[in-house]
Design goal:
alpha+beta; 2 domains; elongated; 239 residues
Length: 239
């Protein structure tokens, strides 16, 4: 048995452990709230709310066990652990986002090209709508010329249907153009937000060090931005 170097009050328990032949016997000790020193070969129930020292057979302290937590302390510790896990997951998500962003846009030219492609698609769609509006305006002019023959009289049902359909089609195209204009503003805002983060990454910032990835709400238009207009109401019917 190794030389005993602990306090005398542990010697009896240490000898007892040696007699029983337990190779890794542990001796627990603590001081109660009223000053009593207790020892045992197992955790001491009377000292659950106190620090307990765990001694080896040689009497040296091998471990210090903190007091058991109260229900409130345990709940607070669990909440802290959950917050730490969530924070680590958020940092991992941010790092993954940043790495993907750098892979897509390794330099400014790549980002500018992607912006141009996205805006070109919307511009082409808007041009189609604008061309359709021109056609509808020509059709409406012909309808109005025909309607001049019925001043003061109801329009024939077929002509009335054509006028109503023209009004509805023009309203739909105007709404499409307004929505396309808003979408182009959102696309530009999205690339602007990305560019702020990319410039820091290109300058050497570590992936995941810039906070959470941008949320789509960051490139939404301000609350005061005009909404897309709805279809125009048809003109009043002629008597």
């Amino acid at each position: 048995m190794p030389a005993f170097r602990g306090p005398r009050w542990l010697l009896g328990l240490a000898l007892g452990a040696a007699v029983t032949g337990v190779a890794q016997a542990a001796i627990y000790s603590c001081v109660t709230a009223d000053g009593r020193r207790l020892t045992s070969d197992m955790p001491i129930r009377e000292c659950q709310s106190r620090e307990q020292q765990v001694h080896g057979r040689d009497g040296l302290v091998r471990e210090v066990r903190p007091p058991a937590l109260s229900p409130e302390e345990a709940a607070a510790l669990e909440l802290k652990k959950r917050d730490e896990v969530a924070a680590r997951a958020a940092r991992a998500d941010a790092a993954r986002f940043d790495r993907n962003l750098l892979a897509r846009y390794p330099h400014l030219a790549a980002h500018n090209k992607a912006r141009s492609v996205a805006l070109d698609d919307l511009s082409r769609a808007q041009q189609v709508s604008e061309s359709r509006l021109v056609e509808l305006a020509k059709e409406r002019k012909a309808l109005d010329q025909e309607a001049e023959f019925y001043v003061g009289k109801p329009l024939p049902p077929k002509l009335r249907r054509l006028v109503d359909a023209n009004d509805a089609a023009r309203g739909a195209q105007e709404t499409a153009i307004a929505n396309q204009t808003l979408e182009k503003a959102r696309v530009n805002r999205r690339y602007d937000v990305e560019l702020v983060r990319l410039k820091k990454l290109w300058a050497g910032a570590a992936a995941g060090s810039l906070g959470p990835p941008p949320h789509p709400s960051e490139w939404e238009l301000p609350a005061g931005a005009p909404a897309a207009p709805g279809p125009k109401p048809p003109p009043p019917r002629q008597p």
